[in-house]
Amino acid sequence: MTATRVLVLNSGSSSVKYQLLDMRDSSRLANGLVERIGEQSSRLKHTPLATGGGSREWTGPIADHDAALKAVAEELAKDGLGLDSPELAAIGHRVVHGGKHFTEPTVIDDAVLAEIERLIPVAPLHNPANLTGIRTATALRPDLPQVAVFDTAFHTTMPEAAARYAIDVETADAHRVRRYGFHGTSHAYVSRATAKLLGKAPEEVNVIVLHLGNGASASAVEKGRCVDTSMGLTPLEGLVMGTRSGDTDPAVIFHLARVGEMSIDEIDTLLNKRSGLIGLCGDNDMREIRRRIDEGDERAKLAFDIYIHRLKKYIGAYYAVLGHVDAVAFTAGVGENAAPVREAAVAGLGSLGLAVDDELNAVRGDEPRLISPAGARVAVAVVPTDEELEIATQTYALVKKTN
Predict the structure, then answer these.
(1) Distance between CA atoms of residues 195 and 233, nearest Å
(2) Confidence (pLDDT) at 39
(3) Cα→Cα distances 255→167, 249, 250, 269, 385, Å
(4) Is the pTM of this model over 0.85?
C-alpha cells in the first residue's frame, strides 16, 4: 500500500490547528483545532470530513502540546484515520521563521531543530511553539518523516536590494537583521493559483498578492519568484493590520521612550497589539468597521481610509518594482470577503490598468475568480488561500523525492 496521507500541524503558543489530507486528490479527510492549551477550559473541535459526520467538540483541561496531540490522535483514530495508519506518509509542520538558511521544505533532523531554535530571538512568539509541536509529533511517530515548511521560504528569492535594511552591514549580519517576510505559504499558493486562473504557467506572469487578514502582507511575484514583500524582520512591518501598526518611523520608538517614558516592552505591546485598526478606531473586524462607517462614524472612516491609503501605496510600489503586472490577487479573510476594500484599493488606478466590475466584485464564492471588467489590461482576482494544502503539497513532494 502506498502511503498518500499527510497530516498538517500548525502549532501556536496555546493552540494546535490540524488537517489530514489525501494527496491522491488533495481531499480533506479531517480537520480540527485545539485551543487554550494549558488551561482548565481547553477546547478541542474535530470534524471528520471523510465520513461526512458532524463535528465533535469537548472542553476540559489539556495540560500541554503533548496531551493536545495525543487527543488529536484519539479523535482521528475514532474515524479510522489514526496516526498509526500505514497510509500516513508524513507530518508537515508550519514553521514561521526559517531565516536565510531554509529556502525550501526540509526533512527535520537534529540539525534542523537546532537551527529553528537559534532563530527564536527573531520569532519569539512562534518558533518555540512550532518546535514543541515538532518534538511532540516526532515522539508519537518517530518512524515517520517530519517536514518543516517555512513561512519565510518563499521570500528567500528576494534580491539583496530588497532584503537588506540600510544600516551598518556588520551590525546587521551579526544580529541577523534583514527583511525575511511572512505568510510565504499563502503567497506561494495564491500566486500559482492566480496564474492558473489566467490560463498560464507561474513563470509567465507577474502578480501582486495582497494577503489581507488580521495580519496583512503584500508581495511582488515575478515569474513565480518573490522579489519583494511588505513584512520584514518581523511581521510588524508593512501594511496596516488588525492590531499592528505596519510601517512606522523608527524614531517613534525613541520618542515614546524618551518623551512618553514608555519601556521597550510597553512600546512593543503598543505597536503589535494596540495599533493598526484597533488602535485607530477600537475595532479590528472589517465588517464592524464598515457597519460603523455606514452609520456615519468618522473615526471608523478614518481608520478605513488609512488602511486603504497604505494598501494603495504598496500596490503602486510593487507595480514599479515589477515593471509589468498581469494580475493583482486579493486573499485571506478580508481580501476574500470585503468587497469595499477591494473596490477602494484599486479606485483611481485606472491609468495602471486596474479596475473592478461592481457586479463581479459583489459576488461571494469559494473558487478563484476575476472581478475586473472584461478586457482589462491587468486582471484583478479574488483567490481563496489554502495554506494547509500548500504545506501538504510541499511535504508530500519532498517525501516522494526523498524516497
Answers:
(1) 29
(2) 87
(3) 20, 10, 9, 16, 39
(4) yes
CA–CA separation, 371 and 266 (whole Å): 42
Closest CA to 213 of 181, 243, 190: 243
DSSP conformation class of 198: T
pLDDT of 244 reads: 93
Q: Beta partners for 222?
A: 206, 225
Q: Which of 22, 79, 151, 386 is catalytic?
A: 151
Q: To the nearest 10°, report the CA torsion of 214, 9, 268, 264.
A: 180
**Nearest Cα residue to 388 out of 9, 3, 5:** 9
Is 151 marked active-site?
yes
What pLDDT is recorded for position 158?
Answer: 97
> Pairing between strand 225-229 and 327-331?
unpaired
* Dihedral angle sign, alpha carbons of residues 318, 322, 325, 331: negative
Q: Which three cell numbers stand for residue 107?
A: 526533512
Cα distance between residue 317 and residue 319, in whole Å: 5
With 0-12 / 13-18 / 19 or more C-beta atoms within 10 angstroms meaning exposed / middle / buried, residue 249 is: exposed
Intra-chain end-to-end CA distance of the chain, in Å: 15
Which residues in the chain show pLDDT less than 70? 1
25-42 burial code (b ≥16 CB/10 A, e <16): eeebbbbbbbbebeeeeb
- 8 Å CB contact between 228 and 158: yes
3-state SS class at 168: coil
| Residue 298: predicted pLDDT | 97
Q: Max CA-CA distance within the chain?
A: 68
* Residue for grid cell 494596540: 274
Helical axes 127-140 vs 65-78, angle rounded to 10°: 50
